[in-house]
Amino acid sequence: MEESKDETVYCRECGTETDRDAKFCSECGARMKVEVSDLWYLVSVFLAIVGGLIAWLANKDKDPEKARNFLIVGTLITVIPIAIALIAFFSLSTSTGTEGVRTTVENISRTIPTG
To answer: How confident is the model at residue 70 (pLDDT cuts 50, 70, 90)?
Structure first.
C-alpha cells in the first residue's frame, strides 16, 4: 500500500486509489490495512504473556504480523526471567552442592525480618 502526501492511499490488492479513511477498497472490496499503534507493545511488556495475548487478540485481524510480534514480546518477557532464574538456581546448586544451597537459603531467611 503506497501512500501519497494527500489523503489518498492505494489498495494493496488491485492498486485502486482509495480514501485514507476507507475500511474497504471501493473497487475490489479488499480490506484496507489499518494502522495498529505501537503502544500495544507496552501491554505486552507490562503484562507479559497475558498482555501479549490480549494485544494479539485485539489486533490479529487488523495487522496479523504486528499482532504476532506483540505475542512474541509478551512470551519473551515471561520466559527469559524464568530461564535466568532456573540457570542461576541450578548453577548455584551444582557449584556449592545441596548443603551450600541449604546454607544460602538459611542465611537469606535470617536476614528477612519477622513480624
So the answer is: very high
DSSP letter string, 48-88: HHHHHHHHHHHHTTT-HHHHHHHHHHHHHHHHHHHHHHHHH
For residue 19, list its beta bridge partners. 8
- The SS3 call for residue 31 is strand
Determine the residue type at 85. A
pTM above 0.85, yes or no: no
Cell numbers linked to 84: 535466568
Q: Which amino acid is at 48?
A: A
DSSP state of 112: S
Over residues 109-114, mean pLDDT: 71
Question: Rounded distance, CA 17 to CA 1, Å?
Answer: 10
Whether 90 has a pLDDT exceeding 70, the answer reads: yes
Pairwise CA distance, residues 21 & 29, whole Å: 14
Q: Tell whether the model's pLDDT for residue 94 goes beyond 50.
A: yes
Give the strand pairing for 17-19 and 8-10.
antiparallel
Residue boundaries of the structural domains of the chain: 1-33, 35-111
